[in-house]
TrEMBL record:
MF annotations from Gene Ontology: protein kinase binding
Boundaries of every Disease resistance R13L4/SHOC-2-like LRR domain copy: 163-244
GO BP of this protein: cell-cell adhesion; establishment or maintenance of epithelial cell apical/basal polarity; neurotransmitter receptor transport postsynaptic membrane to endosome; neurotransmitter receptor transport, endosome to postsynaptic membrane; positive regulation of neuron projection development; receptor clustering
PROSITE patterns recorded: LRR
Organism: Cyanistes caeruleus (Eurasian blue tit)
Nucleus keyword on record: no
SMART domains from the UniProt entry: LRR_BAC, LRR_SD22, LRR_TYP
Keyword DNA repair: no
Protein name: Leucine rich repeat containing 7
Pfam family, one: LRR_8
UniProt keyword list: Leucine-rich repeat, Repeat
Single GO cellular component term: postsynaptic membrane
């Protein structure tokens, strides 16, 4: 190191901050990584071109760069080019020179399209181009046969190229927040696709081609206009995560039971009036969300979901819970807010691993003694009900850290006093918040329909 020339030393000072990875061969400095992120740059620094033979990674994140100079594309050893959050309006055709490029991040710019000759970047495996006004992909895009991950969220896509299925190595495809209504039939060739995000698009039905993508593990179809969850979904045997919330789904087909590996099922904010009994065959389910629907009853088969940890059925029209809920021994979180429950089944006491239970805005007039068996309860919300007191067995809930009895309660826990029930003479617990004053029905309806 001592033999270095003074010019080399000053050069090191100039770019030292920008070179997190470098090595030396005698007096020659070999730079493979440059990082100019968050430097307030309006153009690509000229120093970059001094290393066009050795540069493999270039980071220009979060600057104000408006265009990429031609010289940049002489850096033919470049494997990763990261320029998100800049002011680029186009991707120059010179990109075709980067024949060794593997990762390209151009997200959060103003790029409207990809050049046709992007097809020359045959080594590309990851493209992150989200948050750009891209309205279509050129046919050449489908020649990027090594692509494994494509992120094009929050763009203006209305369709995908007909031969999109040529990208047979794709494992992750994210197209959230576009204007897609259909998928090309050629997508049945995407046998390695594991994660597909089509949330916030304009699908009115589940694309038929999906049932042929047998390896799919995660599927987002939330915020579309689906009216039915068809039986074909049951052909996705590998599916682990399914989000179809915020649609207009009125029925879930019996054959959903075919999704035997499903762990998370999100059906929130739809128009469901009932769930099929076959939902009880989804034995691996750990999360089930059916809140904000029109359910009047839950199937007894819900008790077969022995691995269920989180269950949310708030904002429905339930007048009872099935006694089989007592079989949910792994349940940790239970939310049944804003329904019409006058009572809870005694079997709820068997849900001994529940730590959070919310029963806000129901018509509960009493709670069963068995609630005292739920000794891991830490948070219990009972506000806006019609309770006159609490069962004495509440004294067994030693872990309880928050007991909500009113919407405007100032402290999480308010002391309870023992009293004799005026009719049965049994010991009960009470305080100044009892008896609860229920909201009027008009208030309830306003509360439920609030955004």
């Amino acid at each position: 190191m001592q033999g270095e020339s003074s010019s080399m030393t000053s050069k090191r000072k100039l770019i030292g901050r920008l070179v997190p990875c470098r090595c030396f061969r005698g007096e020659e400095e070999i730079v493979s990584v440059l990082d100019y992120s968050h430097c307030g740059l309006q153009q690509v620094p000229k120093e970059v071109f001094n290393f066009e033979r050795t540069l493999e990674e270039l980071y220009l994140d979060a600057n104000q760069i408006e265009e990429l100079p031609k010289q940049l594309f002489n850096c033919q050893a470049l494997r990763k080019l990261s320029i998100p959050d800049n002011d680029l309006s186009s991707l120059p055709t010179s990109i075709a020179s980067l024949v060794n490029l593997r990762e390209l991040d151009i997200s959060k710019n103003g790029i409207q399209d990809f050049p046709e000759n992007i097809k020359c970047c045959k080594c590309l495996t990851i493209i992150e181009a989200s948050v750009n006004p891209v309205s279509k992909l050129p046919d050449g895009f489908t020649q990027l046969l090594n692509l494994t991950q494509l992120y094009l969220n929050d763009a203006f896509l209305e369709f995908l190229p007909a031969n999109f299925g040529r990208l047979v190595k794709l494992r992750i495809l994210e197209l959230r927040e576009n204007h897609l209504k259909t998928l090309p039939k050629s997508m049945h060739k995407l046998t390695q696709l594991e994660r597909l995000d089509l949330g916030n698009n304009e699908f009115s039905e589940l694309p038929e081609v999906l049932e042929q993508i047998q390896n799919l593990k995660e599927l987002w179809m939330d915020n579309n206009s689906l009216q039915v969850l068809p039986g074909s979904i049951g052909k996705l045997k590998q599916l682990v995560y399914l989000d179809v919330s915020k649609n207009r789904i009125e029925t879930v087909d019996l054959d959903i039971s075919g999704c035997e590996g499903l762990e998370d099922l999100l059906l929130s904010s739809n128009m469901l009036q009932q769930l099929p009994d076959s939902i009880g065959l989804l034995k691996r389910l750990t999360t089930l969300k059916v809140d904000d629907n029109q359910l009047t009853i839950l199937p007894n088969a819900i008790g077969n979901l022995s691995l269920l940890e989180e269950f949310d059925c708030s904002c429905n029209e339930l007048e009872s819970l099935p006694s089989t809920i007592g079989y949910l021994h792994n349940l940790r979180t239970l939310a049944v807010d804003e329904n019409f429950l006058p009572e809870l089944p005694r079997e709820i006491g068997s849900c001994k691993n529940v730590t959070v239970m919310s029963l806000r805005s129901n018509k509960l007039e009493f709670l069963p003694d068995e609630i005292g068996q739920m000794q891991k309860l830490r948070v219990l919300n009972l506000s806006d009900n019609r309770l006159k007191n609490l069962p004495f067995t509440f004294t067994k809930l030693k872990e309880l850290a928050a007991l909500w009895l009113s919407d405007n309660q100032s402290k999480a826990l308010i002391p309870l006093q023992t009293e004799a029930h005026p009719e049965t003479k049994q010991r009960v617990l009470t305080n100044y918040m009892f008896p609860q004053q229920p909201r009027s029905d008009e208030d309830f309806n306003v509360f439920c329909s609030a955004p």
